[in-house]
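ok so I'm stuck.
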Amino acid sequence: MKNKNELIEYWAKSSKMDIDAALDLYKTKKFPHCLFFAHLSVEKLFKALFVKTNEKHSPITHNLMLLAKESKLELSELQVEQLAEINTFNIEARYPDEKFRFYKKCTPEFTEKYMEVIEEMLNWLTEKL
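replied:
not stuck anymore, here's the structure
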């Protein structure tokens, strides 16, 4: 494994790049893509926390619930519900059968709500780092 701190920094920087991309996509009203990149941002901070907690490479997964569990984070019921929904932004944005349903779901109101949720989640995760 690379230096633990280097890996944590890598995941944190990559997370920041993805949330910046999500915000740019939000401004241009590309809401499904915005939420996809926002999911990636959360995922990468979880991976940074996994490395910090476990002192090894993070698992190759996009599953936020698994990453949270493996990072030994205690989540509130609300956070579990929010992560379950955010988790779908990865799957539903990628696969053709789900993609169009996801596009319809990504109204301006839905996207704004989840961008706020994700911002809170990212701040919370950053504090844990």
